[in-house]
Every structure is written in C-alpha cells, then in structure tokens.
Design goal:
Keywords: Glycosidase, Hydrolase, Signal. It contains 3 helices and 15 strands. By secondary structure, it is mainly β.
Amino acid sequence: MEAGKSTLKIHYRRTLTDYDGWELWLWGVRNGKSSDGFSLLPLIDAKTMAPYRDPFGSVFELAVGSGSKFPDPKGTTLRIEAKWGEWCEKDTPSREIPLGSLVRGGQENIYIVEGEEAVFTSIADFGTRFVVVNVENIGSANLHLATFEDGDRAKDVFPASQYRDIFLVDTMGYGSEEIGISVVDNHSIPDRPQLVWTPDQGVDVSIKAPKFERRASDAFESSPLNQTLDSKKSILQILRSVIGD
C-alpha cells in the first residue's frame, strides 16, 4: 500500500440479513463544513461476482489518504448513513467517527449494526453480544439455526452467504442470559435445543447438524411429475373459465 494511504473496511449488519439493495452514504465534516456525500457499494466477491459478506454482515471498503475523497483524515469526522436504493428506505440514526484517530495506515475495520448509532472498531468491543456458532457437517443448504428462550422457539438465524457453516447469534433482545440453540431444516420443530448457551461459555461455540429425514410429501411436491400435473391443472382451469364446464 502506498505511503499516506489507508483502507477502512466498514462491516454492516442487518438483523434479518436482508442486504440486497442496501448501500452506504458517506460524507466528511471538517472545520464545521460538510463535503459532498457519495454512495459506497458493497465489495464484490471475485469468485461469485455477488456482494461479499463475512459472518458479521455486508462489507464495504473505503480508501482514505492521498488521492482519495478523504486526503487528510486528521481533523475529519466521517459520517455514515445506510440507505436502500435511491433513498427508498433509510436506516437511522446516522453514525460518525473521527477518521484521524482511527486511520493509522494499513487496514482498519469498523462495525455498525442496523438501527444503532454506536460504531465499534472490533467485534470484541461487543463483549458477549454476538455468539459465533460453528455448525459441523451442515451439508444441506436448507439448514439454519433456531434459538429458544424459556423453552419456546424465539428466532430463526441464517448464515452469511459465503460462510454457510458459521452463524452469528445476536443475544440482544432476549430476556434471559440462557439461549437455546438448535440446527433446524425448513420443516423441523425440535422439542428442545441442542445447546443452551450462557455467557460463561464465551462467544465461540460449536454444534453438530443432525440428519433430517426428508418427508415423502416434500419429495412429491417438488418432483417434476407433480409440477407437470400442477401445470396441466392450471391449463384446464383456464380453459374451463373461458368455455365453461
């Protein structure tokens, strides 16, 4: 990296992992004056050509220093807003962070969460809020996590697209420090969690994916024969509506 240049990676987490169409709007404030704002799109994965996501969320990359939109970060405050499309929706509040105290050359990271003003410089700054769940033998793409509180199913948790076996459970919003965790498929409703997490276990845990038996009705519903039958039924219904029974 050239002298005087830095790269700031901005990690943005949305609660429901609905990242499509979301981008960042950035501008700087220096000596009481605001610079022109601009859109920053997520990084693109070179292999899949799709937006890149790490286990925390969507990732954006901002050049800082010589030749960038922020050539002199010292004394500049970076302001960040997340928006969907052409301001069809906006994630408030705005966030701000002093660039001079953050950027020291090389690569730096910051982490922001949907609907929250705080800006963190490390996942460790969140304490035990985010629990990394490593799922062994996950196999099927239909599997995800279900969390439980007081014995009842509370929330579904889905992985980042590039890390199908790594899930991030946000413990905020639960009334209890004990959170049950299970691997589930699209149809299973487990009676009890496979793992009961408490803060003393740390923020990195592992769980094994059980084997789920595919129901005969599922196979029939998705079979080419059944799809053909449905198509013929639709055609017959249209004809009957036109010519009558």
